[in-house]
Design a protein that fits this description.
Layout lengths: L1 E4 L13 H21 L1 H14 L22 H18 L5 E5 L4 H21 L3 H15 L1 E5 L2 E7 L3 E8 L2 E3 L4 E2 L13 E9 H11 L14 H9 L12 E11 L8 E8 L4 E7 L7 E5 L12 H4 L1 H20 L3 E5 L25 E5 L6 H18 L9 H4 L6 H13 L2 H29 L4 H10 L1 H12 L7 E5 L8 H30 L5 H22 L15 H8 L4 H12 L14
Antiparallel strand pairs: 1-4, 2-15, 3-6, 3-12, 4-5, 7-8, 8-9, 9-10, 10-11, 13-14
Helix pairs in contact: 2-7, 3-5, 4-15, 5-13, 9-10, 14-15, 16-17, 16-18, 16-19
């Protein structure tokens, strides 16, 4: 099984390339890529150290200070915090069902609600069956927490299986997590990768993979050169994970970069949005063209933002000094406990030689005088100050990263059976508040990646038309009738203005029991609102109601709708509050006529209330 990325460049005009323009782009790429790699050397060293601390590998294999074979334990403070936060992210993002929430983004709610429902159903199917959102997020969020930056790649792929006849097995958008060391951003650039001067994606391709992509993507691979070694950060990843391999022993590897620059290739004063495939080793451009995607197919999240810098700050780097200090204290404490059982000996010169002091059971030392040899204690095992110092270090580390798994007791240990519910919820959510900004970064990265999956369908629809594979797949999932609105919306230029796609988990303070209580409360609020709206409509639509009273009733209903809308906006689960509000003026006009009494009576039976007269009306809210 092999896959190739399918760029939608069929709908773009080809660049009018010549040797001069190719040379300009080549010089630009060589200069920018080499400067970027050189500029982030210290950053890569920091990533390597973060990975070492996460895997709890000692800096030196053997520790001979202050004694030979001294305790050499790397305390996994970084791993403890990273794993706790990682589990929290996955639980918050994927425990809520459905994972994604699609809402109407415009004000024309009546026409957009059905589109949002179709998008929701297709998004649920894609998230479960095609896009591999969970797989990509699992690795990208771990990179975000450990190293400070996580990257998702969202291409449109063709999967091919080679048998007696070559055939395409599957096609569609996919969400992949990229190794951070293989994603290159220019130093000092903005944090929005869509606005950066360029971004580059490095791939290590075997000769077979290179030829496959050259065949289907029309790469010019003549003269490309294999590499002599892979990136050293990648080597350290494999070394610490005990999965080190050297593929060059079996097959040549090629370092291929896919670069998305803004570059004025035709020198008309306007930067073109390009997609260039570049071999760094031979400095050869394999293919150059316009960027056929609607946007660069990458999404990035940072654990802790660093203002005006492209890379973020991760938990491992935050805790580096704490782990080093804790490791030194722990090894010293362990050595002290061991040394408490050791003894040195004071002996008269010439009484004993060093070999005679070797210890074993039932050993007898013969001396001329019992006062010729005396023991000397090396240490004491009772060191409460060291334990208190270790707890202090863990407490500071916990406050630094926002994890409650290092030293603080669990909320369940702080609460009694008589603690009020809201107090208990507040205590349980306290451990998450420091984590809110980082969680939002990862949540938004995932939701933007899902949105790009819809863009990949849009791009194929524009190339293939309404009868292409992309349209057929949407029809297969939703049915022909329901698929048509989504297909037309995707082909429109303002798809992003129609619907909003988000994770259902809206914040780091998600609690399922609280969500359920909020849902029940929302239903109660809306039930009372609809009942009172029906009463106001009864007053306004009654023929015997005077016009001034009718106008007041309509104004009260409208004001009540505004108040309800502002109220339900406070619920995290509600993304489109206007969808729940009744347009009273429009509905009253529709009720005018001889059948309005029967209509109101039926509505009253549905809502569980009776149509009351004007004199029996109750306040709206």
């Amino acid at each position: 099984m092999r896959y190739t990325e399918q760029h939608p460049d069929e709908r773009e005009k080809r660049l009018n390339l010549n040797e001069t323009r190719i040379g300009d782009v080549q010089d630009f790429l060589v200069s920018e890529l080499e400067d970027a790699y050189a500029g982030r050397t210290h950053e890569e060293k920091s990533w390597e150290e973060c990975l070492r601390q996460y895997h709890a590998r000692p800096k030196q294999a053997i520790r001979d200070i202050p004694v030979e074979n001294a305790p050499n334990i790397e305390v996994p403070l970084v791993a403890t915090a990273c794993d706790a936060l990682y589990a929290m992210v996955l639980d918050l993002l994927f425990s809520m069902k459905p994972t994604l929430t699609v809402s109407a983004a415009g004000f024309d709610q009546q026409n957009l609600v059905e589109l949002a429902k179709c998008t929701q159903d297709f998004g649920n199917w894609g998230e479960r069956n095609e896009w591999r959102l969970r797989d990509g997020m699992e690795t990208a969020t771990l990179d975000t927490i450990q190293l400070g930056t996580g990257v998702l790649h969202i291409p449109y792929l063709n999967y091919r299986r080679q048998t007696d006849v070559g055939r395409i097995v599957d096609r569609g958008p996919r969400i992949f997590a990229m190794p951070l060391e293989d994603f290159l951003m220019p130093g000092g650039s903005t944090q929005d990768i869509q606005e950066m001067p360029w971004v580059a994606h490095r791939q290590w391709l075997t000769e077979g993979e290179l030829r496959l992509r050259a065949k289907h993507n029309k790469w010019d691979i003549e003269g490309v050169a294999p590499i002599t070694t892979v990136g050293w950060v990648r080597q350290r990843r494999e070394h610490y994970g005990r999965a080190h391999t050297n593929l060059r022993l079996n097959s040549a590897l090629y370092e291929i970069h896919t670069v998305y620059p803004y570059f004025d290739i035709d020198r008309d004063g306007i930067d073109e949005d390009l997609c260039i495939v570049f071999d760094r080793t031979s400095r050869k451009i394999l293919k150059a063209g316009y960027n056929g995607y609607d946007c660069r197919p990458y999404e990035v999240s940072r654990y802790q933002l660093l203002a005006h810098l492209p890379y973020g700050l991760g938990v491992a780097e935050m805790l580096r000094s704490f782990q080093e200090e804790f490791t030194e204290m722990h090894n010293a404490r362990t050595l002290n406990i061991l040394a408490a059982n050791w003894r040195m000996w004071l002996a008269r010169q010439g009484t004993l030689d060093e070999a005679s002091l070797k210890q074993y059971p039932n050993r007898v030392l013969q001396v001329a005088n019992v006062d010729d040899i005396k023991e000397l204690q090396m240490s004491t095992a009772h060191t409460p100050a060291a334990a208190l110092h270790e707890q202090s270090v863990m407490s500071m580390a916990e406050r630094r990263v926002g994890s409650g798994e290092l030293s603080s007791p669990r909320p369940s240990n702080l609460l009694s059976s008589r603690t009020p519910g809201i107090t208990a919820l507040t205590a349980m959510q306290t451990v998450n508040r420091r984590f809110t900004a980082a969680f939002d970064q990862m949540r938004l990265m995932g939701s933007r990646a899902v949105y790009q999956c819809f863009l990949r369908y849009r791009e194929r629809l524009l190339v293939e038309g309404l009868r292409g594979p992309a349209a057929q797949n949407i029809e297969k999932v939703l049915g022909k009738e329901r698929a048509l609105p989504l297909i037309h919306a995707l082909r429109a230029d303002d798809f992003h203005e129609h619907v909003a796609i988000e994770f259902t988990a809206s914040s780091a303070l998600v609690n399922q029991m609280q969500e359920r209580q909020d849902a029940v409360q929302l239903v109660n609020i809306l039930s009372q609102y609809y009942s009172n709206v029906l009463q106001m409509m009864t007053i306004a639509a009654a023929p015997e109601t005077p016009d001034p009273v009718r106008e007041v009733a309509k104004k009260i209903a409208s004001a009540g709708g505004e108040a309800i809308e502002r109220t339900i906006r406070t619920f995290d689960k509600v993304r489109d509050p206007r969808a729940f509000i009744v347009d009273v003026n429009q509905e009253v006009d529709q009720l005018a006529g001889p059948m309005q009494g029967d209509i109101l009576s039926q509505l009253g039976q549905i809502l569980g209330v009776g149509a009351q007269s004007a004199s029996e009306g109750v306040p709206l809210i």
